Here is the input.
Amino acid sequence: MATNILDNIDLRILGELLQQARKKCGMTQADAAKVIDAARTTVIAIEKGERRLKANELIKLARAYGRSVSEFVRSRPVVQPFEVQFRAVYQRSQEQETEIKPFIVHLEELCQNYLELEKIMDAPLPQNYPLEYEVTNMPIKAAAESIAVAERQRLGLGDAPISRLRDVLEQDVGLRIFYLKMPQKYSEVYSYNEQLGGCMAINANHPEERRRWSMAHGYLHFLAHRQKPEFHYDGQYQRFPESEQLAETFPKYFLMPTSGLLKRFNDMYRTHGKFTPTNLFTLAHYYGVSVEALVYRLEEMELLPSGTWDKLRDRGLKVRKVQEELGLEQIPQRIDMMPLHYQHLAIEAFDQGLITEGRFADFLCVDRLEARRIAEALREYSSGMMEEDTDFDLRQTETGGK
Here is the structure.
């Protein structure tokens, strides 16, 4: 089966894919040589694309690397492994590397899938990237607020709350954002390269308020430290470096801009003649941030006395209970693992017969049974609409007579 494919395949790309797969499963070239009963120099030549691989050798190596043969022979973009970028970050702690590495590898796989779907559908992800912001020797707070104001203006957000932050960053900026179920202490993973652009994994296990904060945190790294990969977790630093101070300061200005927050606080105060805990919870819900984050922001703006949060906590404040009593519904959110554009590309590729059902399932990270259920649901969603009714240019409705 693979004989004809291997006769015509790009040996350099195949060698690079094999090398990446070998390294990801922790095997040496000597280990791989034993798998195919060859010398180490043979594996070196294969990975350099200088020696043509036999079909049985590819099958053995794929099995040893825990991959399918199709992953190596189908046309697929090759991207720089995230692991290479994160090597310097890993050096901080072997324990962290062991724990977070599978999620970084998964993010890389998803981003590579994304790029593959774009090529299949000939629909590259639109990117609206600003130039990297220069922050060297700037005061942290001033730099964070300045970038937040500039980005809000660039994206047309005004000073209102950003209700659909994930959609804004995915669709208006062009970042690749995936929700992964990571250990509780991890918030976000960020990476960037020229092929993929900005990529983030956000912890799906966190409440929406925290996911939004993590996205804004990662977005600052994209804006000001673009080439520097990072993963963020609780208790990461004894002393925060300036880059992390900036990333942690940025969300409060980006999510709660001074002018809008001041206006809404004053409106509430004038209406009620005071600013009550109910007002506080309502305002936090309105901005999609935690009550704690809002209190600290209002303290910083001198709208609440310093130490307000500590006093509320000492009184035994139960945030979730109060939110339920006030009838504050969950913040609108989209918790899909995949970005919307990614899902649309996968669905369109499957619907047009450009990918198999098995590959469709792989792209969505589900089994074939679940893939069929999703496909059927989509067909049901589209029922009642003829194909010609879903594939025309709405801008031409007048001239086209539709």
Observations:
- The two ends are 48 Å apart (CA to CA).
- DSSP finds 22 helices and four strands in the chain.
